[in-house]
From TrEMBL:
This is TetR/AcrR family transcriptional regulator. The keyword ATP-binding does not apply. SUPFAM superfamilies: Homeodomain-like, Tetracyclin repressor-like, C-terminal domain. Keywords: DNA-binding, Transcription, Transcription regulation.
Length: 199
């Protein structure tokens, strides 16, 4: 984050920030990204629009930071000693209810990300790239431990597999993603593709 952004964001308390993010996510679920306005956020949170723009610069950054605030910590601290343990631990960070709510948020954003360059850029910079870097570290550890061959072609698709399962669960099965579903998917699809033995 740039120094200007750090300065811009330092004038608000963590409690107030959490309250604002909660309101943004509620609005996103209610009306979707395109119909969500800074006026509506200001009204919902009893803020001035000028304050919102000063703190976040615009709707895209505000929405993506609100999304990021829902993540149960990064995956940086997860290191169980095995790739299977690490992936199961990632799934175990959120309960099924939270996972379902996050899936609904992703659906609310999916089309908007394709239609809005500023949102897509914020999404990549603030959510996708940091997560991808942590996944790359996790994979490097697994390669270093000898669990995965560094030349395995499935390595480039691990995140696609995981995100795909999460995103398409409702579309294909008309069910929300759950811990049980994602854990069994990891064992049945992701780990075999990577050549990781389950025992």
């Amino acid at each position: 984050m740039s120094e200007a952004a750090t300065t811009r964001r330092s004038r608000i308390t963590p409690e107030r920030e959490a309250e604002l993010y909660g309101a943004v996510l509620d609005l996103l679920r209610e009306v979707g990204y395109d119909a969500l306005t800074m006026d509506a956020v200001a009204a919902r949170t009893r803020s001035s629009k000028a304050t919102l723009y000063r703190q976040w610069g615009g709707k895209a950054e505000l929405v993506v930071r609100a999304m990021r605030s829902q993540k149960s910590g990064g995956i940086a601290g997860i290191d169980t000693g095995t790739l299977r343990g690490d992936l199961h631990a990632i799934v175990g960070r959120e309960d099924d209810c939270t996972m379902e709510r996050n899936a609904a948020l992703m659906r609310a954003l999916a089309m908007a990300v394709h239609m809005n360059d500023d949102l897509r850029q914020a999404f990549k910079e603030l959510l996708v790239e940091p997560e991808m870097e942590e996944f790359r570290r996790m994979i490097r550890r697994a390669v270093d431990r000898g669990e995965i061959s560094p030349g395995n072609p499935a390595l480039d698709y691990m995140v696609h597999m995981l995100v795909g399962a999460f995103a398409t669960r409702t579309l294909i099965d008309d069910l929300p993603p759950t811990r049980e579903f994602l854990t069994s998917y990891i064992d049945a699809v992701v780990l075999p593709a990577l050549g990781v033995p389950l025992h």
